[in-house]
Amino acid sequence: MIMTLSMLVSAQGFTMPPGASRSVGPPITLHMGFFDDISKAFTNEEFVSPPEGLKATARHILIKDKGQVELVLNELEAGVGFNQVAKAFSACPSGSQGGSLGSFSPGTMVKEFDAVIFDPETNIGEIVGPVQTKFGYHLIVVDKRTGM
Questions:
Q1: Partner of 15 at 20 to 30 A CA spacing, among 28, 35, 75, 128?
Q2: Separation in Å, CA 68 to CA 65, 80, 112, 137
Q3: SS (HEC) of the chain
Q4: What is the pLDDT of residues 79-134, one digit of tens each?
Q5: What is the dihedral of CA 97, 53, 111, 95, to 10 degrees?
Q6: pTM of the model
Q7: What is the rounded distance in angstroms from the CA atom of residue 125 to the CA atom of residue 129?
Q8: Of 80, 20, 58, which is closest to residue 139 (Cα–Cα)?
């Protein structure tokens, strides 16, 4: 059974005067060292989201035949959109999505591809290439890079 202050006073044969406060003072906060640190785990006061890892979002056009590279570059230079050219010419399944590879971390793609994507000298939004890999020749656009 939990006893209130008025119950304790009554049990001792006393009565509380009318208008007397039932609280005895300000609330007491106990600091228990180890447990204080545990309680912080359940609050957001000291939470900082971890830094975003090194990632990139890119598109590409994969061209198997070196002779077609010039044709594809001419289409792009003539002002045809990258997505449209990727759908028409890319040998990669991503061509159907305009060449979009989504977001990925270093080591996900082949070494030559990663070297271009994660090179700080590669400008966001510019067409780079052709970059030769074991799959063929790539024309690459880096849309976003984080963590650098």
A1: 28
A2: 6, 16, 20, 10
A3: CCCCHHHHHHHCCCCCCCCCCCCCCCCCCCCCCHHHHHHHCCCCCCCCCCCCCCEEEEEEEEECCHHHHHHHHHHHHCCCCHHHHHHHHCCCHHHHHCCEEEEECCCCCCHHHHHHHCCCCCCCCCEEEEEEECCEEEEEEEEEEECC
A4: 999 999 999 999 999 999 999 999 999 989 999 989 999 999 999 999 999 999 99
A5: 0
A6: 0.64
A7: 13
A8: 58
Which residue type sits at 99? G
Report yes or no: 144 and 57 within 8 Å, Cβ to Cβ.
Answer: yes
Pair 134, 110: CB distance under 8 Å: yes
Q: What are the structure tokens assigned to 44, written together? A: 């957001």
Angle at 129 between CA 123 and CA 131, to 5 degrees: 120
Nearest to 123 by CA among 144, 147, 148: 144
The candidate with the shortest Cα–Cα distance to 59, out of 38, 80, 83, 31, is 83
